[in-house]
Amino acid sequence: MTASTKTRGKAAKFATRDEWLLAAKKLLDPLYTGTPAKVRDVRASVGFPAGKRSGKSLHAIGVCHYDAQDTMPQIWIHPEIDNPARVLDILAHELAHAYLPVGTGHKGDFKRTAEAIGLTGQMTATVAGPDFTAVAKELLAVLGPYPHSKLTYQEATGRKQTTRQILVDCPCGIKFRASRTVLESILDLRCPDGDCGETPEIVYPN
């Protein structure tokens, strides 16, 4: 597994997060060779995803939206994430979504792609495995500093931090509680009922 390092040498400097993310995308693209994923153009930025993943339901640390008017996938990285190595593996996860057909989910071709590029763990919340970590180290030397300043939890949500268990409420009626750390480590939270598949609402305490 190799990524493009043709620009290796003096680390590139980027003025904006979008420039850094798109440069990272180009360097990551060779990893998808030989996988079910088909590389295509995407937009990548930092911000709060639209719909159920914003406001009170904010929990995804990365998301890929397919529903732009021009059909180009749009990837969003949560503004609380400022570790560039973590940003890379989140971006790689979302690129796998962008490069696979809509509706692929986290099984089948997605799982095969994620594992092939070096991601590991639960497919809804992958992390960098040893192979991806080694590649990321090389790419970060090329990319240089990630030009981003993280938002604090209170700035990002308008709510104070708490150690209380947080309620998760699905439209199907299932409710459960989990810690904020666990919830915000999940890239694409889904109902635990396999027959439901809805995105539950995270009800942050006041």
Describe the protein in words.
With 206 residues, the chain is α+β, with helices and mostly antiparallel strands. It has six helices and eight strands; from the N terminus they run H-E-E-E-H-H-E-E-H-H-E-E-H-E. The strands form three sheets. The chain has a three-stranded mixed sheet with strand order 1-3-2. A hairpin with a 5-residue loop joins strand 6 and strand 7. Helix 2 crosses helix 4.
Could you write a compact summary of the structure shown?
The protein has 6 helices and 8 strands, in the order αβββααββααββαβ. It has helices at 17-28, 84-99, 109-116, 130-143, 153-157, 180-183; strands at 43-46, 62-65, 74-77, 119-120, 127-128, 166-169, 175-178, 201-203. The longest helix has 16 residues, at 84-99.
How far the N terminus sits from the C terminus, by CA atoms, comes to 46 Å
The number of helical runs is 6
SSE succession: HEEEHHEEHHEEHE
Residue fraction in strands: 5-15%
**CA-based gyration radius:** 17 Å
Class derived from helix and strand content: alpha+beta
Note the overall shape.
globular
Mean pLDDT across residues: 82
Q: Main β-sheet, in a few words?
A: 3 strands, mixed
SSE blueprint and pairings:
Elements: H1 17-28, E1 43-46, E2 62-65, E3 74-77, H2 84-99, H3 109-116, E4 119-120, E5 127-128, H4 130-143, H5 153-157, E6 166-169, E7 175-178, H6 180-183, E8 201-203
Parallel strand pairs: 1-3
Antiparallel strand pairs: 2-3, 4-5, 6-7, 6-8
